[in-house]
Amino acid sequence: MTFVSLEARALRVRSRGVNPQTGQPDQLVEPVSLSLRPGHAVTLLGETGSGKSLLAQALIGALPSGLVAEGEVLVNSVQQLTRTAAQRRALWGRMIAVLPQEPWLALDPTMQAGAQVMETRWLVGGQPRPQAWQGARAALRHLEVEAAETRLPGQLSGGMAQRVAFAAAHTGDAPVLVADEPTKGLDISRRDSITALLRRHVEEGGALLTITHDPAVARALGGTVLVMREGAVQEQGAAEEVLIRPRHAFTRALLAADPEGWPRQAGGGQIGAPVLIARDVGKVRGGRRLFSGVSLHLAAGEVVGLSGPSGCGKSTFGDLCLGLLSPDSGTVERPAAAPHRWQKLYQDPPAAFPPKVTLRASLMDVVRLHGCDPAEIARLLLRLGLTEGLLDRLPSQVSGGELQRIALLRVLLLKPLFLFADEPTSRLDLLTQQETIGLLTAAAREQGCAVLLVSHDRALLDRVCDRVMTLPAAA
Amino acid sequence: MTLQRWVGVFLLFSLLAFSWGVPLIWPLDPARQDLMVLLTPPDFDWSVGVTALGTDHLGRSLLARLAAAVRLSLGLALIGVVTAAVPGVVLGVLAGWCGGWIDRGLSLLADAVFALPGLLLVLLVLAIAPGSFIALYVGIALLLWLEFFRVVRAQTRRLRQAPAVQASRLLGFGPVLLFRRHLWPELAPVVLTLAAFGAAATVMATAALGFVSVGLRPPVAELGLMMTELLPYYDEAPWALLQPVAVMALLGLSLTLLAGKDPR
Amino acid sequence: MGPLIGSPLVRLLLARVGQGVLVALMVGLLTFILVRALPGDMAYRIAAGRYGFDWVSTTAADAVRHDLGLDQPAPLALLAWIWDLLRFDLGQSLVTGRTVAEELSHQFGQSVLLAAWAAGLSLLIGPPLGVLAGLRPGRLVDRGLLLVAVLMRSVPPFAIGAVLILVLAVQARLLPAAGYGTPAHAVLPALTLALCLAAVSARVSRDAVMTVSGSAYYGFGRTKGLGGSLLFWRHGLRNAAVPVLTYFGVQFVALVEGMVVIETLFAWPGIGHALVHAIVARDVPMIQGAALTMGLFVVAMNTVIDVVCHLLDPRGEPS
């Protein structure tokens, strides 16, 4: 079957059941129209919960059972929403290939990679076995991962798993490719290699639908961009138009939240006494030398960035500075002061709080323990743009961005000399990231606290830090 | 709390009320034989009570015997679970938190006890003093502490490495506060579940041992023993045999429902 | 040797050997305490068992005393006791006078037969039902299974056996209630054990299937275009089988525990029955031999299952 187009006309998604509060079904995605054609890329850009994944699922017929799609989905001008689930599934793998999120989890851990690529051609595409194997090997060679054929997914690197999943997702000639957050959790170089892969699909005449939160990905793919927020499309148009001359305020804010576009923060505030001197520090973990000969001199009020490739020991270096680990070589000196004045912010905010205790109780523990002024909580709440009511909830009941700010509040109560912020915003949306990083650096500079900020986003560090230190890849 | 647990609580309280209520209302002796009324079917005559649920092959009141048997099973389960849970939890937290040789030593001990199937262990302990309540209790407690120890140790090890605990340590929390804020809220529901499972296991092991005549000895009223004694009369008096079976099932059911999801 | 010792399978087997040694030590220790705690003069009783009651003399008893090390201080005697055990020198039955090994070989065969029937039957009942429930969670099969599983878990095996006797042997008169000899005699005890095992393995299978079918790789298989049963055969079965089999190993403990009681209930001449008899008769060598055999049986079966899991799961790490 030749592919002409996959179109959505006034496609919307609602819950099957009725919301007891409103007496009506919840409308999760407002009417959207878009068109996928050969050689054309369409990108859905939005934050967590904006409904972009639901829209894609409605388009391919993979909505969870509690949700209903309405409007029109047309494949080669044939309405899909009236067809049975089985009829719609028949397109998967053959006409529509779905590239999974986090491909290293999407491959069967107990089956060799080659067999997983081959089975789609054999069992879905109906090719004879030898031919399916041939096609699978050719596809892996095409993607430069022949070595993966006889390996188990656990033995593949993230980048290899991504390519294997790409090859396994379809019978070999599926014209439509749907990629849901293909760059989630990847560092910049891996992100660029996957966008190149997607672009190649378009250049070879395929249609591409990408879902992403990252404006850089949308920019790299070109084509049509739809900016979504709270289930509705805010702005829709050619990538060059939307991403360069956004008309809608939300698009402008979203683009401005990309660290590439942040204004440079003026550093050079009051630099005070040294709070940390690390000399020629080295550490071996799990039989692997992570780094050696690293030195850092940090003074009160300084914000220093720490970057480097995944697995190079950024977190370990931070824990050495905090005294949580001791170095195998070199020395870490800290001026005499109470140990609780060296603090840490964690990557995953909910993991940093006792899960079954209210936030207020967690904060009051700190206040009682160190005789802080309880009024300080109210002042910091105001400073960090938080409301008092949040404190009566459990950590799981507030958003990630709010929780990270409460974690910041908790450490600021102790007037820290040094704060190690270990990728504090990598799990947050762009807008929330911008706000959180801004508050973090500003509050630290006000209090004269030194910050060591880890991020895999070099642009972010360049914008907000006084200087940036880079660890080389581990041996 | 889930509906399932509420049903379990309700059943358990009904059984408690039955077992402690019966002797208050009908002061019957569960060991008193009356050879004039052997294997009489239940007459549901609640004024006297002796034959309300019928009598066994020695003319003993089944009503009194069932109540006594439930008291015995639950009593043993309660003291068994409490004496097993306290050292199990304390040692589990100790081994999981401290690690090192404390952990290795305690884990080796646990592995040694765990190497044998539980019932075999209790049987061997019981063989030293057959029919003795103390031996039965020691055997069961020896078996039960292990579950608490293993699960609590594993949970503690997991929690100790959690970022939340590291964060609290950096904030200056001492061991007491760490235990109150981080360990206990996570461990308490697990310990409760294990206690209910442990109680069910105790009740069933006691009955199983009584049933194969190596547990408590006649004339004690015990569910497993009652079943063995009444089994030869299954043809004449199936209603008599079914009573301890049904009570056993209700006991087991109430405790299993109360336990909720198995944490192992 | 280095890479061999490091390989997961070898590590696993070494751990099982260690477990076997621990079983022997525990059995030895407990039976040693048992010998020392028995009332009366153990040596006389054993001598009577060995030479017949008419031939017991102080000389014979002293010889036995010396043999068993009862004249030695306890720690030394314990070491000697355990040494005999590790050499599988189990001694003679105090009741029949025949060697324990001789007695147990027949009974063990009967027990293995029963265990094989029970385990096989439970595998035919439990996992298929569990898979059915797991593929359609919340439906009738699933809910029904949950109810039955909770009920079965709440009742000890012998009570289930008693009910089966009442229903199938007494009321319907389909099967003999007790004894052995014909295949029909094996049905009720095997079925009783199998039902108890299946109630649990069905739940474990259901949870395993639920986990697999909720996994990212199962979802990916679906969007690759693999249809229902094809998907299950390619990516479901193998991944779900590993935890189910691992749990099946754990169930051998329950099987052996059940055997003690069920063999007694149905008068099946197996090793569990022998253990109970030996305890009643205070026949220490038999107690020791039976407990050791049953303990090692569990370890051996778990070893087999470890190897099967290892072959099934190419990752080489048992889950």
Characterise the protein shown here:
The complex is a heterotrimer of chains A (about 475), B (about 260) and C (about 325). Chain A is of the alpha/beta class and about 475 residues long. Helix content of chain A is about 35%, strand content about 25%. Chain A has helices spanning about 50-60, 85-90, 105, 115-125, 130-140, 160-170, 190-205, 215-220, 240-245, 250-255, 315-320, 360-370, 375-385, 400-410, 430-445, 460-465; strands spanning about 5-15, 25-35, 40-45, 65-75, 80, 95-100, 175-180, 205-210, 225-230, 230-240, 275-285, 290-300, 305, 330-335, 340-345, 420, 450-455, 465-470. The model of chain A has no long low-confidence stretch (mean pLDDT about 85). Chain B has about 260 residues and is mainly alpha-helical. Chain B has one domain (about 5-260): MetI-like (MetI-like fold), CATH 1.10.3720. Chain B has helices at about 5-25, 60-100, 100-115, 120-130, 135-160, 165-170, 175-210, 225-230, 240-260. Chain C folds into two domains: about 1-85, no CATH class; about 100-315, MetI-like (MetI-like fold, Orthogonal Bundle), CATH 1.10.3720.10. Chain C is globular. In chain C, helix 6 packs antiparallel against helix 11, helix 7 crosses helix 9 (about 185-215) and helix 8 packs across helix 11. Chain C has about 325 residues and is mainly alpha-helical. The interface of B and C includes residues 207, 251 and 255 of B.
Number of strands of chain C: 0
The CATH class assignment of chain B is Mainly Alpha
Largest sheet report of chain B: none
Quaternary structure type: heterotrimer
Q: List SSEs of chain B in N-to-C order.
A: HHHHHHHHH
Q: Tell me the name of the CATH homologous superfamily of chain B.
A: MetI-like
Number of domains of chain C: 2
Number of helices of chain C: 13
In short:
The complex is a heterotrimer of chains A (about 475), B (about 260) and C (about 325). Chain B has about 260 residues and is mostly helical.
Could you list some keywords that capture this structure?
heterotrimer; A: about 475 residues; alpha/beta; Rossmann fold; 2 domains; five-stranded parallel beta sheet; 18 strands; globular; C: about 325 residues; mainly alpha; MetI-like fold; 13 helices
How do the helices and strands line up, and which of them pair or pack?
The complex is a heterotrimer of chains A (475), B (264) and C (319).
Chain A: E1 6-15, E2 27-36, E3 40-46, H1 52-60, E4 67-75, E5 78-79, H2 85-89, E6 96-99, H3 103-106, H4 113-124, H5 129-142, H6 158-168, E7 176-180, H7 188-203, E8 207-212, H8 215-221, E9 224-229, E10 232-238, H9 239-244, H10 249-256, E11 274-285, E12 288-299, E13 303-307, H11 314-322, E14 329-333, E15 342-345, H12 359-370, H13 375-383, H14 400-412, E16 418-422, H15 430-447, E17 450-454, H16 458-464, E18 467-470
Parallel strand pairs in A: 3-8, 3-9, 6-7, 7-8, 13-17, 13-18, 15-16, 16-17
Antiparallel strand pairs in A: 1-2, 1-4, 4-5, 9-10, 11-12, 11-14
Helix pairs in contact in A: 4-5, 4-6, 14-15
Chain B: H1 3-25, H2 62-98, H3 100-115, H4 118-128, H5 133-160, H6 163-170, H7 175-211, H8 223-230, H9 238-259
Helix pairs in contact in B: 1-2, 1-9, 2-3, 2-5, 2-7, 3-5, 4-5, 5-7, 7-8, 7-9, 8-9
Chain C: H1 2-6, H2 8-37, H3 42-51, H4 58-68, H5 74-86, H6 100-135, H7 140-154, H8 157-171, H9 183-213, H10 216-223, H11 228-265, H12 271-281, H13 284-312
Helix pairs in contact in C: 2-5, 2-13, 3-4, 6-7, 6-9, 6-11, 6-13, 7-9, 8-9, 8-11, 9-11, 10-11, 11-12, 11-13, 12-13
